[in-house]
Each structure stands twice: as structure tokens, then as C-alpha cells.
Amino acid sequence: MATAHSRAAARLTMSPAVVLLLGWMLIPLAMTLYFSFLRYNLLMPGQEEWIGVLNYQYFLTDPAFFAALGNTLALVGGVLVLTIAGGIGLALLLDRPFWGRGIVRLLIIAPFFVMPTVSALVWKNMLMNPVNGLFAAIAKGLGLQPFDFLAEAPLSSIILIVTWQWLPFATLILLTALQSLDSERLEAAEMDGAGAVDRFIHIILPHLARAMTVVTLIQTIFLLSVFAEILVTTNGGPGTATTNITYLVYAQSLLQFDVGGGSAGGIVAVVLANIVAVFLMRMIGRNLDI
Amino acid sequence: MGQITLDRVTKSFGDIAVIPPLDLTIGNGEFVVFVGPSGCGKSTLLRLIAGLEDVSSGSIRIDGKDATALPPAQRGLAMVFQSYALYPHMTVRNNIAFPLKMARLDKAAIDRKVEAAAKVLNLTSYLDRRPGQLSGGQRQRVAIGRAIVREPTAFLFDEPLSNLDAALRVNMRLEISELHASLGTTMIYVTHDQVEAMTMADKIVVLNAGRIEQVGSPIDLYSRPRNRFVAGFIGSPRMNFIEGEAARGDGADCIGIRPEHLALSTESGRWSGTVTVSEHLGSDTFVYVQVEGIGTLVARAGGEFPVHHGDRVWLTPQTEKLHRFDAQGNAVSSAAPGVKVA
């Protein structure tokens, strides 16, 4: 296969895709980088001028930036912990034979197919609403004061919504990993005197390590850019309580019309995402070394 | 210690009875081999003894105590699986130490026992490797190591050598036999390979469709098979069976004669036929002969026997080594004096 001819042919046939992808990624990135060094405000068209790193200085010293950074980390970390813990629990349950397992598996996967905007609206208006919501109705039925989720615990509520969306994904990946566990290995552990808890800690969890790493990596990529759920529910508020970096960039560019500052924020987000990626890749590298 | 008694044990999966009522006693220190074709229930029987499957009825006693309802860990048995079932994320040391850790032994005792087991099995220099870095034979030894550190009352082996290549299989066979000789612990060994059964066992249990066809020492089964199934299963190449006119001449519905008990001649004999294939193994020659009215018979000649495809040869059975079977396939008493048929 690897003759000079076939290599040349491979390069030739690959090149359109590579050129297209590079253009797709590099041109927006280069433009964002360029804008981030301009004073570029939509309210002052035609007055763009080079201002060096001033946009970065403003963005990084903005108190909202640190709040947004903290919120981003809390959102990503919270959802990861909840989806992996919940995913392992659900996978263990779904791995057991029970009547109607096929239907239940299908239902478990369903939230993944609901688009984020819709699920956030459903949660906001049908479940968490303090007047009309299901949770409020339950609370009233029990004689309790309804809890205004999005006003009292906004970030936790968003973490809950996003967890609901990503739990099926984690469950699915962890379930397939669980099904690839050799049953003889569990039987051997049973003969060796390991009870259910010991089998879970010493055999099942290590076997799931790789799947957990994959879930972490893929979810982190998507969770860093959670946006729709925040826009429809809280608009980043109250104050900056639910503003993450993505939402802050949006607010800077399109609510305050400061494209230059927003671009600087975008570049900061890219750098942060890469730092996270380096850590994750290291973690994966270690976990794949079994 | 290490006596296992099965009393009227049955096992069925749904409506399918895998093991009809079965009685068996395994004595202390015996090396017992369960042998039979695939699907005969031998692995199921082992798993019933191990406690990995529940018996449908009947009882299992280990050292006189009723173990029928005991979970696997409390039966004091250790099992070596066909796939070895090593823990891939643990080092060899931790694999071997796992049952001791589960028994909550203190660290010094664990280290001492693991080192001792590793020494017996020549694994000392591999203790810090992962199973993935070991060869098939080494993995097999780790699995055995994990079994012996528990000092069980009996070892259970489930086709442990079937994943190894032929040369290694012979080596491991010897090592397991030596281990049995030095430990003196009861061992139950499941295999479909009658060579393993013959070479290793004190006592062979031949199973067919969940039933015990015969229990006995290897030589017992070889020289006095109780029925056609055992006669055909034990011995390699398998026994020749002759039915019809030729058999009735010997006063049976079917007669059996092993290849090594058929004398080959190029001049004269009882049956004549043409050679279809001759296999020259050096030490032996196996000659496949097409005999008219009987079918293909296999005969063994010691050393070299220079015949080729199409040659005419004569075969003569050693009369005292003939096995006679009735229409149901059960062995019947021989007319020839001095030969006992069980």
C-alpha cells in the first residue's frame, strides 16, 4: 500500500477535505484574533483602530470574568461528577435482566435527543416554575413552600438541567463498557471471596476507568460551551450568578456591542480550553496504558 | 480434608434438564477428571460444585458439611478458569494477593504467601508486571498462583489448558501433575481432551448428556469400558467398531477393537482390505484400511510399516482384547476366558 504512488494519491484525495476544514477553522480564528486587538464597537461603525492588548486587559480585569471562570468550572465539574456517578448507577441497573428492559433503555436515551433550548424551556416552565411547575405542585401538595429554583439556586438548577441532558450519554458509554466485562472475571473475584462492594471497587470500577475517561473528555468539550440553557432560563443572572465564559463573550459582543472585547474573551476561552485539553489528554494517556 | 460428595444433584435451565440426578463421591487428595464431549454438562457440574450455579435439587457436601446453599467464597474451593480471568489492571503480585486481601490478612502475611507461591510457580521475576505483558503459560501460572495462596480444600480447573499451544500444554500438564503430587490437595479437572484425562487423572468421570457413563481409573476405562460411548471416547485413535455379520460371529451385536490390538500383515489374516491412508509418525504407523463388508478400520503398527495407498493388507484382532457390546451399546461378558468385562 505504502508505495510513493499510493501516498501521493492519498494526499491528493485528502487535500480538499483538509483545505476545507483548515479554512473553516483558521479563518474565523484568525479574524477573532485580529478583532481582539481592535477597538471595534458596533455602536461606532467605521472607527475601528488598533489598540494592542487593551481589550485583553479590560476583559481579564473585569470582575465578571472571574465570576464566569468560576461558574464555568463549577458547571463542568458538577455535571461531570453527577453524570458519571449517575451513569454508573443507571448502567449497573440496566445491565441486569428485568421485564421491559428494552423499553426502559430506549426511554433512558431519550433526553439526549431533545435539543438544549427545548429541554431548558421545559425545565424552566413546566418543572421548576414556582407557580405552575410540577415541583411547585408537589411541594404545595405536601404543604411546603414552593422553591423558586432559578432565582434561589440558579447555578445548581442549570447544572441539574445540563446533567439531565448528558446523563443518557454517560449511561450509554458506561453500559457498553460494563457489558464488555468478562463474566468469568467477576466469578473469579466471587470465588476469591470478594463481596458485591469489593467486586464493584476492585473489578468493575477499574474496568470502567477507560470509559469514564472518554465520557469526561467528550463531555468537557461540550460543557465548556454550554449556552442555550443559560440564555433561555436565566440570561446569565441573577447578576453574574450563572454567567459562564461562553455567555460572557456573547454578552460582551452582542449585548454591549463590544466586538473587540468579545473577541479577546473568545481567545481567552480558546486558551483555557486548551489548558483543560492538555490535562485531559494526559489523563487519557495514563488510562489507556492498561 | 477435601472430600466432596454429590447426592442426587440435578440442574435444569428452564425446561431443559442439563444434569439428571447424579451421585458422585470425590475422595480426599484425588485428582479427578471430568471428561466428555462439548455440551455434556461437565463445566456445569464443576460450576455447581464451585457454587457459581445453584443446584435445582439434591445436595453437595464438602468435608461432610452441607455446602448446597453456601456462597462460592465460603466453600473453601479455588477455581482456575479457561480464560484465566486475571485482573488486567493489577500486577501479578496484586492478582495473586487478591484473595488474601479479601480475606483481610495483614500485609506481612500476604507478602510472605505471595512470594512463596511465586517461587513455586517460577513467577518471582514477573511479580511487578501486568497480565497483559505475560505469555499464555505465564498467565496460566498466575491463575494457578491465585488459587494456591488460598490453601483451598480442593482446586477446580475448567479446561485450563485449552488456550495454550500443543508444546506448552504438555509442559503445563506436567506442572499441574507435579503440583498435585506436592500439595496432595483434591483436584477436579474438566477437559474434553481424553489425553489430558488419561495422563493426569487418578479417577476419570466420563460424562455424556449430563449422565455419568463410567467412573474409574484411566486403565480401567481403557481396558474395561462399560459401554460403547466410553469405549469410543477413551483411546486415540478411537476404537474400531464392527457391526453386522462379522460381529455376530463373535456372539455380539457389535464388537470393538482398538487400533493397537489389530495385527497388520501383508500376507494373511482374518480380514483383508486395501490401504486408504497410512500415517507415519516415526514411532508408530497408523494404517486406515477399507475392509469390504465392514468399513474402514484403523490399525497401529509399531515403528515403520511400509504400505501405501491401494496396497492389500490383512488384519487380525487379538481375540482376548475384543470388546463385545449388545444392541443397547452396553458391554457384555466375553466368551473368551480370562477377560473380565465390567
UniProtKB/TrEMBL annotation, chain A:
GO terms for biological process: transmembrane transport. The chain crosses the membrane at residues 12-35, 64-94, 106-123, 155-178, 208-228, 264-284. It is found in: Cell membrane. GO terms for cellular component: plasma membrane. Keywords: Cell membrane, Membrane, Transmembrane, Transmembrane helix, Transport. It is a multi-pass membrane protein. Residues 69-285 form the ABC transmembrane type-1 domain. It comes from the Bacteria. Coiled coil: none annotated. Belongs to the binding-protein-dependent transport system permease family. This is Sorbitol ABC transporter membrane protein/mannitol ABC transporter membrane protein.
Automatic annotation (TrEMBL), chain B:
Residues 4-234 form the ABC transporter domain. GO terms for molecular function: ABC-type maltose transporter activity; ATP binding; ATP hydrolysis activity. The keyword ATP-binding applies. Transmembrane segments: none annotated. Gene3D superfamilies: 2.40.50.100, Nucleic acid-binding proteins (2.40.50.140), P-loop containing nucleotide triphosphate hydrolases (3.40.50.300). Keywords: ATP-binding, Nucleotide-binding, Transport. Pfam families: ABC_tran (PF00005), TOBE_2 (PF08402). The keyword ATP-binding applies. InterPro entries: AAA+_ATPase, ABC_transporter-like_ATP-bd, ABC_transporter-like_CS, ABC_transpr_MalK-like, ABC_transpr_MalK/UgpC-like, Mo/tungstate-bd_C_term_dom, NA-bd_OB-fold, P-loop_NTPase. Belongs to the ABC transporter superfamily. This is Sorbitol ABC transporter ATP-binding protein /mannitol ABC transporter ATP-binding protein. It comes from Azospirillum oryzae.
